[in-house]
Design goal:
This protein is mainly α. The chain has helices at about 1-20, 30-60, 70-90, 95-100, 105-115, 115-120, 125-130, 135-140, 145-160, 165-190, 195-200, 205-220, 225-235, 240-245, 255-275, 285-295, 300-315, 325-345. Helix content is about 75%, strand content about 0%.
């Protein structure tokens, strides 16, 4: 009868513990203190009750099926109990990682599973323990089932304190990529202006993101007007040339003057990028040269003086040191761009 009393007491503590875990964690400091005190009392109560119940079942021979050697049997039972209680203790402290990290998908689901582990984990112990109270009940089911439940509960209990950190670390990059992807796609849906959408056509983005941005850009009824506006007024016209490098415009004649106007910005940026140690060196002239040759070949003479001016600026001695980039690599890139401009001018 004492075994049933201990079991009922453990179940009662488990029910109170489950109701406690279902409550949201308070945010105030005074409330947090009360919450922590309640958690410690419930953890201690569950640990003591489950320990006494385990000892009672062990003394009544409920675990004799584990081993004939008493020392070995008791050691195994102790390890099983310790793992199961460790898991309940950890989960009761509500490690709600999804509240501290922007988790999504599988990782967020895992965080919820861990957060409510104090509800489902004790059941893996209480159900077998209930059947252990009477040998005839225990014999109604396969011993392998009890082994699986208890070992699983114990292993999970031991792993829970370290598993979240490992999992979060392992899925951190995956999770960041998923978040970045979702944010990019959401931005593409809400953005209407071409300049904002061009940001997501950069080759550093996932192909699906680039295709979504490109599709929305091409669907814009005032695409050429907006591209011209960027060339004339933006401090960063490079995204337009990246776009035009792969997409033709219907009225190239409209772009001649805006492109000429954009050279003042590009020439100034080129100079600053080369001489400033805080910049990353020269910008990629490849898209610009290809666009001028591909879509505006009939107006090369208009652009040539500006390319010559750009070439002159590119001959400026580069910064010897870079704060944020590798100076040697920046110089190698500059030499390559100088050669590209030189070849372009020789061709035209």
């Amino acid at each position: 009868m004492f075994g049933y009393f201990l079991f009922g007491l453990t179940v009662l503590v488990y029910i109170v513990l489950s109701l406690f875990v279902l409550q949201p964690t308070p945010s105030g400091s005074d409330q947090n203190y009360g919450w922590a005190s309640s958690a410690l009392v419930l953890i201690a109560a569950y640990g003591i009750c489950s320990l006494l119940l385990t000892i009672n079942i062990t003394a009544k021979g409920g675990f004799n099926w584990i081993s004939d050697a008493a020392l070995k049997r008791n050691a195994i039972v102790a390890m099983l109990w310790l793992g199961m209680v460790a898991g309940v203790v950890y989960c009761t402290l509500k490690p709600e990682y999804h509240k501290f990290y922007q988790l999504t998908g599988f990782v967020r689901l895992l965080s919820h599973v861990i957060s409510y582990g104090a509800i489902w984990l004790p059941l893996l112990m209480l159900i077998p323990y209930y059947l252990f109270l009477k040998p005839e009940w225990r014999d109604t089911l396969s011993l392998n089932l009890f082994k699986i439940l208890l070992v699983f509960a114990s292993v999970v209990g031991f792993l829970l304190p370290i598993a979240p950190k490992i999992i979060l670390k392992s899925y951190k990059k995956f999770d960041e990529r998923e978040l970045a992807f979702n944010n990019a796609m959401n931005n593409i849906k809400k953005y209407q202006d071409v300049m904002s959408l061009l940001y997501y056509t950069d080759k550093s983005y996932d192909e699906q993101i680039r295709n979504a941005a490109l599709a929305k850009i091409k669907a814009n009824k005032h695409l050429e007007d907006e591209l011209i506006h960027i060339l004339e007024w933006s401090n960063s016209p490079y995204s337009v040339f990246d776009f035009l490098d792969e997409n033709k415009v219907e009225h190239p004649e409209r772009f001649i003057e805006p492109i000429v106007k954009s050279f003042s910005t590009m020439t100034a940026d080129m100079h600053e990028g080369i001489v400033s140690p805080y910049k990353g060196g020269a910008f990629d002239v490849g898209p610009l040269l290809r666009v001028l040759e591909g879509q505006f070949n009939g107006s090369i003479e208009v652009f040539k003086p500006h390319i010559l001016k750009l070439q002159e600026v590119m001959e400026t001695p580069p910064a010897k040191n870079r704060v944020y980039d590798d100076a040697e690599q920046c110089n190698e890139t500059l030499y390559k761009y100088r050669e590209d401009v030189k070849n372009w001018l020789a061709k035209h």
